[in-house]
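Researcher: Structure for this, please.
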Amino acid sequence: MKHLKFFLVVLFSIPNFVAMAAGDPFAGKSKAEPCAACHNVDGNSVMPDWPKLAEQGEKYIVKQLKAFKSGSRKNDLMAPMAASLSDQDMEDIAAYFSIQKVTIGKADPDLVEAGEKLYRGGDAERGIPACMACHSPTGSGNPAAAYPSLKGQHAAYTIKQLQAFRTGVRKTDDKNVMRDIAERLRDSDIEAVASYINGLH
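Model: Predicted structure, token format:
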């Protein structure tokens, strides 16, 4: 009887623990309603300056929301949005957007060759690693490491972020790897790889 009681306590505790430890996409759907104004209901923003969140890794979304809330990542629109979110809210919202299907854009045919070369092979002479080393050959990112998914992302948004990394306006907590890379990129490189990413799938 004692063993049975212990088993039941453990059994009924597990779902509650899991619900608290991970995001709930069903709860996230309602919590993400304010996000729809900029990112659309399904996470595929219409405005090219605002990022698509559909299929984005949960850890990455949570990491960015925490950065906006703490002020370590500056954005006048996102700071007040993140300010009122609890850790569980962030987990739930991230879980919701992660299961939405991202819409793929179209790369500029004139930039595909240069963009693909950088994304898949980098430029050893300039010390630029291949983007796919961290963001995967398909652009799906590395969810476990919180490296973002890039596939289908608006070119304008990608350009803006690479420029922000290059100038130091945007920082990362992993020894500023992205800043080191972005500093080696020419404007033409950024334009080409951003265009390629927009059509990547």
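Researcher: Any notable elements?
Model: The first helix runs from residue 2 to 21. The chain has a mean pLDDT of 90.
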